[in-house]
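**Reference record**
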Amino acid sequence: MVHGKKLVKETLLLSVLEDGDEETESEKLLPEEHKAARTEVDTRGPKDQHSKPDGNVLDRGESEDKGKLYDPTGRTCYMEACERLQVVPVPYFLRHMQDNELSMMYYGLGPQGTKALAVPLVTNTSILRLNLRDNWMEGMGGAAIAEMLKENCYITEVDLSDNNLGDRGARAIAAMLKENSTLVSLNLSGNHFTTRSAEHLGPALITNTKLQHSTSATTLWESTQDKHWGTHCQRTRG
């Protein structure tokens, strides 16, 4: 079932991003039996199986709470993510998560708030333009958004400027760009990128042929003189 697979990905995203260490995203996604077991419960639609309090599985069609159905809006998922990550839900997001454009500049989400936001966005099919400028998400939050964008094939424009993404965020964004074929505009300016950041982002931007506008390419090229980034600048300018 398509919905079932995407819901597992949604819950898996939350579980792998709970820790704040410096593992790479590929290491975080290594399968673990207890994570697999945890993601299998409470993520299925009304026609699938559910879990009893004692851990046993109910047969198809049975349910402890027949009134608790799959929420296609993602609101329930977001509230659960906030609770698990111990952050306060943003009312604005709850009100506008079904809009075509979501602008949440200067909300002070931080790394944890950004991770909570990323979870329901994995399966969101409404938002096409996402502006998260100046939310101080840092590398950890940037990695969460990058993982989300690997799965979401509807968002076409993203603004992550002024979020202090640093090298860790650059590495995650680079990995995303090698898989995402939907983004056409990406703003990464003001993120304290270094030469190492450019080493990650430069080749990824060259590989990604869908991205038409990448703000910060010029500024990073001028500050690092990275040859990969310079090649990308020449291509986008032309």
About this structure: Confidence is low (pLDDT under 50) at residues 23-53, 57-67, 223-238. Residues 73 and 231 are 41 Å apart (CA to CA).
